[in-house]
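Weekly sync, protein design subgroup
Attendees: M.S., D.O., the rotation student, P.L. (late)

Item 1: inverse folding check
M.S. brought a backbone from last month's batch and wanted to see whether the design step gives back something sensible before we order anything. D.O. pointed out we never logged the input encoding, so this time it goes straight into the notes. Structure tokens as presented (225 positions):
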């Protein structure tokens, strides 16, 4: 998979890419991630990238040309499966969409800032708009990092244990069951006997039961789906 991230704050995303599971995935060539600084396509001596909104109002708008130039350069080099704009008014990100996107080859992520990007970028290039939740961040960078992390961990070989991602919360509309590790007893608190039984069938049944219990209690909306 290749992900091209268009941003006016590459440092924000870079900090994330150089840590975490994503860094290991990049080092092991499971994914290639390129950051494109909008300022490099900025206009004039001062590399202007934003301007006042037509019609007035507070805040600045990221101008059309710098972002359009970057997208044109990228699209001339290869075909992209999706051009994604991270925005609070997009489709709320869920595991199902992450699963679908994790099968794609080439993605462009556009991070907005200030009041957002010129609407014509959305009309001309953007094929998918994603929000990571009903709150407003100062820019799309953290949202792009969230999406990238969720995608990269699904690429085969990225997690040590191939099956690990399949047992995450949300993969089957159920929250994950509780997990325990050593010691088997801590300050009088014991790990459930069944997990020490070695009986795989009993353990799986117990985990499913706890998943359902937890989902009923915390996220009953998931069970209605
Ligand atoms: N940019 C600002 N807020 C955002 C959000 N909630 N999701 C995605 N991108 C954003």
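Designed sequence read out in the meeting:
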């Amino acid at each position: 998979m290749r992900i091209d991230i268009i941003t006016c704050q590459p440092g924000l995303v870079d900090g994330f890419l150089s840590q975490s599971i994503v860094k290991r995935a990049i080092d092991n060539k499971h994914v290639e991630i390129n950051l494109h600084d909008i300022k490099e396509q900025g206009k004039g001596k001062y590399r202007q990238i934003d301007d006042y909104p037509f019609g007035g109002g507070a805040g600045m708008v990221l101008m059309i040309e710098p972002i359009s130039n970057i997208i044109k350069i990228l699209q001339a080099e290869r075909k992209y499966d999706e051009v994604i704009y991270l925005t609070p008014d997009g489709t709320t990100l869920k595991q199902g969409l992450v699963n679908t996107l994790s099968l794609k080859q080439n993605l462009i992520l556009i991070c907005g800032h200030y009041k957002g990007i010129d609407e014509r970028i959305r009309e001309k290039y953007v094929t998918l708009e994603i929000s990571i939740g009903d709150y407003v961040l100062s820019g799309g960078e953290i949202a792009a990092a969230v999406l990238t992390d969720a995608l990269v961990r699904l690429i085969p070989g990225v997690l040590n244990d191939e099956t690990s991602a399949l047992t995450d919360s949300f993969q089957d509309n159920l929250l994950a069951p509780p997990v325990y590790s050593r010691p088997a007893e801590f300050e009088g608190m014991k790990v459930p006997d069944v997990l020490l039984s070695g009986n795989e069938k009993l353990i799986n049944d117990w985990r499913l039961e706890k998943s359902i219990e937890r989902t009923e209690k915390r996220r009953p909306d998931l069970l209605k789906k």
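Discussion: DSSP finds nine helices and nine strands in the chain. The mean pLDDT is 95.
Action: P.L. to compare against the previous round before Friday.
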